[in-house]
Amino acid sequence: MRIKKLASVAALASFGVLAGCSESNTSSFVAGDVDGGSANEATGIVASNTSYSAAKTKLSRCSHAVVNQWEMDTTAVEQKAVTVSADSAFEGENFAVEANVAVDAADAYTVASAGIGGTGSAWALQVENGEVVFKWRDSQEGEWRVLKADKDVQKGEWNDVRLEHVDSLSILIVNGEIAGAYKHSTKLGNLDGDFTIGFDRTEGDGSNNSGRIAVVRVEYTFDIYVIPVESSSSEVLPEDPKSTLGDRPWIAAWEFNDAANVGRDFSGNGHNAVIGEGAVATVDGVAKFDGKSGFSVPLTPDLKINDFVVESRFKPANSSRFNNILVAEPPGRYGDGWIFRLGYGKLYFNIRDAANGTGWSEFEIASVPMNEWTVARVERLGDEISFFINDSLVKTVNFKGDVSDLGYNWGLGYDAMNQALHQRYFDGEIDYIRFGENLAETAKVDPVKEDVEEQKPEEQKSEDPKPEEQKPVEEVVDTTAVVEPVFEVEGDWLAAWEFNDAAKVGRDFSGNGHTALIGEGSVVAIDGIAAFNGKSGFYVDLAKDININEFVLETRVKPTQFGTMQNIIVAEPPGRGVDGWQLRIDEGVLTVHLRDSDKDGDNWNIFPGKKMTLGEWSTVRVERSNDSLKVFQDGVLTVSVAYEGDLTQMRYDWGIGYDAMKQAFHNRYFIGEMDYIRFGKFEGFSDVNDASVTEVKPLAAWEFNEPTYVGLDRMANNSTKALVGTPVVEDTTVKLDGNSGLKVYLSPTFIRNTFAVEARVKPTKFGGMQNIIVAEPPGRLGDGWIIRLDDGVLDAYFRDENTDGSTWNSLYGKKLALDEWTTIRVERSADSIKVFQDGELTVKAAAKGDVSQLGYDIGIGYDAMNQAIHDRFFVGEIDYIRYFEK
């Protein structure tokens, strides 16, 4: 591959800014006001006015999508400039321009420019004597400003140069290092001229021989943590006196001053809070919480800090056991976190460093009155935490630990993570909640509003506020979870949920105390059988004795309705990066999922067994050793595979009959009956001949059975929500109207040379290029493969750039019939390519080259890369597409 290619949404990863990007040794500082007050008037040169750390944080919040890409002829004696309209080159005001450029001479060389010759703003990305330079002007009449990167390019060598512009912040990245960052007072996206590559329009000189470009890409940049709202801005409204945030540079400020967008962040940093439950209204800049509502705040890197300040002005109407104000709390007994809350009329602060154990350190701050305003503030700095009530220091305590390794969204006014004990809503009014970094030099305290200035806390400031030692507080134990030792089940099981106690359905009959508690809905047990209604389930607290790598699992279940994901019992984390396992039913097929995050990363290893029968009892046994897995269904071995890994790095509670962790896709309830579930230590495999277990499982399988999640991959690792148009799932098929498709982001699953693809399709209209599934680069270069219809004829295309250059190798099958189903299978082995239609071999050819060096996303039903000729939509229905290792 001659030119480096990147997946569209992962362009930043190539520069390292999402995963530990190095920074220049040149000091990063705020040089002047945002309006460019630090500019040298004689030359227009400005210095960076935003720290590289802040720029890196901003980039870590962003994702990207390729809009356009140009691959230049590096062999030409003189490269020709490319000029297109700025309107066609960009999508929106936030963008990124990336170029692979080489400069031989000391002259100025314009890599790319936009808006020059138009009536609005303009900019140019240049290299001058080895220096990367970004120039811009706010209007046609405005003066040029110049930001020079503090890292030079290597002359005569290929260099990666990237300009990011997001939310009025311009960032220069040179060979993977942030080398300049400037916050503008005006936007640069108002362009109406041309976008030009490789031609210095600023000088009016047609010579461009001093440099050379291999590839230029334009991307649309978007902040993945900003929730779109109807209000026009997330910036502070200066005309509103209630928006004044004082001298402290808050990271987030929920002021509740925008009735149209109650959760708006007035700091300008985009941490908008979104309703998680219920509804919250605001009246005269005060949010009214009704005791059953709350906001969720998406977690972002700038919120994950160890030294911080939390401040709020609130008026509680009632107080119960837990009344959350602002919490960064994980859903269970594991993980860093902190909690700012009320409890029975007292203000508390809980904090936990997971490295110190599962217990919370709880500090009682002071009693607060009901139906009166109170201003409370928590300041964490180093090993000390200070608590203030109405601007008076009431207590300072010691706490050692780093609590910045947060992993979940924050809750504002409620428990965003749905803990087991979920009565944690705030009941009353809140004027504001603010969060910021606590610097060593404490900022000036905001003045307390007049109606609370004379209010005194019930617990007065002590004359000698000596730090108190932290007192670890164990989590509250629900006494209903305590089980008397009762041995009513045969076998040495670690846990045995027999469902034989109608009064305590989730009782553990092993005597080890692993009682399952209701997490959602209700489960009724009659005659020792538990009935699951499709909206209920239990959770089981994770404990050391069941957190084991080698185990045996037995259950007897009777499904009465099939669905997309139906959990029997799962030790599944709520997302990525943690070990886990699952036993569930997917569209009637029993499946086991295993993941060792150290070995597998975020990917699940999925092992399907046989399809079950509705309304019939089935006994399932799972045997898991350190290096193997066997699954038996009604005594018949259905899965026997090798799998090495350590699954003991689990951190979350288990779920029975549902998804206890509430994944993004939460339709995971079991529907039917369970007789028992038993879990114990592995003591050797059952003596069964497994030679008959030969079924090959797919690496990815889009079955199109779930209307609410069109792009769901049954094999879990390549699901997608990146839809184009309106693909609709009806009757377990996806209907494509000729303007719709799905984009599957490139993953290691598809980086292989030998594979097979199966699909069942029903075209309803023929056209020139109708993609079924393609791994196709956006141009004449790059490896790839295509399976599509050309005027109804099934075609398969393969290309190895090193062997074939820009030429595709084509295989033509037979023409399909309109409005009729056809099963397709394309196989690529090391030495041959075969195409089957309804089981008949229709074309065969020798395979050559290696097509595994993919660089772009996968398209289903359309051209995910937006080729020059973009009429490539499939029209009709697709029952399924499955991708296999060959």
Walk me through the structure.
- The protein is flat.
- The strands form eight sheets. Strands 14, 16, 17, 19, 24, 25, 26 and 28 form an eight-stranded antiparallel sheet that branches. Strands 15-18-27-20-21-22-23-29 form an eight-stranded antiparallel sheet, with no helix packed on it. Strands 30, 32, 33, 35, 40, 41, 42 and 44 form an eight-stranded antiparallel sheet that branches.
- The protein is mainly beta.
- The chain contains four helices and 59 strands.
- The chain has four domains: 170 residues, Jelly Rolls (Sandwich), CATH 2.60.120.200; 188 residues, Jelly Rolls; 189 residues, Jelly Rolls (Sandwich); 188 residues, Jelly Rolls, CATH 2.60.120.200.
- The N terminus is likely disordered.
- The chain is 2% helix and 41% strand.
Task: Describe how the helices and strands are arranged.
Elements lengths: L44 E2 L5 H9 L1 E10 L10 E4 H4 L5 E9 L4 E7 L7 E7 L2 E7 L7 E8 L6 E8 L2 E6 L2 E7 L10 E4 L13 E13 L26 E5 L19 E4 L3 E3 L2 E5 L3 E4 L10 E11 L4 E6 L8 E7 L2 E7 L7 E8 L6 E8 L2 E6 L2 E7 L11 E3 L14 E11 L34 E2 L21 E3 L19 E4 L3 E3 L2 E5 L3 E4 L10 E9 L6 E6 L8 E7 L2 E7 L1 H4 L4 E7 L6 E7 L3 E6 L2 E7 L11 E3 L14 E11 L18 E3 L19 E3 L3 E3 L2 E5 L3 E4 L10 E9 L6 E6 L8 E7 L2 E7 L1 H4 L4 E7 L6 E7 L3 E6 L2 E7 L11 E3 L14 E11 L1
Parallel strand pairs: 1-8
Antiparallel strand pairs: 2-13, 3-12, 4-9, 4-13, 5-6, 5-12, 6-7, 7-8, 9-10, 10-11, 14-28, 15-18, 16-17, 17-28, 18-27, 19-24, 19-28, 20-21, 20-27, 21-22, 22-23, 23-29, 24-25, 25-26, 30-44, 31-34, 32-33, 33-44, 34-43, 35-40, 35-44, 36-37, 36-43, 37-38, 38-39, 40-41, 41-42, 45-59, 46-49, 47-48, ...
